[in-house]
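Field reference: sequence -> structure
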Amino acid sequence: MTVALTGDAVSRYTASTSQIEAAAASMSVLYRNEMTVDAAPPARFEYEASAVSDGVLDLARLRFLGSVRAGATAFESFVVAYPVEGRHSWKAGRESGSGSVPFFLPPGRDLTADFDRLDLLTVSVTPEAFHRAMDSMGRSSRELMLARPNSMRRSPRLMAATMRFVDVALRQDPTAFASPLVRAEALRQIVVAITETYGVSAEEPQDPTVVHPRAVRRALAFMDSSAHLPVTVADVALESGLSLRGLQSAFRKQMGMSPSEYLRHVRLHGARDELLQAGDGNALTVESIALRWGFAHAGRFAAHYRSTFGEKPSETLRR
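Structure field:
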């Protein structure tokens, strides 16, 4: 049985079946591609899927019982697949692999995979969103070694950790995924992990002795006025006219903190203002306000809030 729940900006998708044809149809919907599935013997086959999507970023978890072969031609998006558990081997273009290491599929790449009792995480990003994210970080997608990206793999643990985090924080919590700020930050983290893992060259080094006071002022003004929007530090760097590394260096010298710390500071104050205005009798909750300001992890939000203001968010809300 398949259930699709659609909201204003995001959708949640779940499926569960013991029918091979239904599993192939489900995977075709999830990956917007024609998928094939074969199982041997078919009587042992079970399939479950759970996913969230906003049409730009898709997060999915698939589980299979039985020995299965799956295939697809020419994915439209950038896809990373992470076999968390189970026996698994794959072939894509001129590359192949096995084991529990995340592997990267650029758009247009065919895939064949054989697996048994597989638990699989995947993230998919549309080419347009991927290119925008790289441009905002001062990088070009031409830097990706798309011919054989997995042979250039450098940081598989970073990619695996990022996928585990977004699975727990966003796929398992559709309320968090519904926040544009949270989704924008998750997309940035995923693209950073991909670029750091699959053969992207480092950006040009900058002179660490150079100070950029005007650029820092532009960055501060932009964060103060736009913290309620799904902007990232990469957007701040673009607005300031500096590279990410240059902005971080200038911030350390002039502000004694990183740009991300300052952006978090502004958002904490925005959340505090809402908590104070809401009051104890309001229907708003600490969690909903935190999510609106981009804090997907309630425990971390509470820790940062208490460290900054000397009280719990719930104490502020009860005033």
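Note: The chain has a mean pLDDT of 86.
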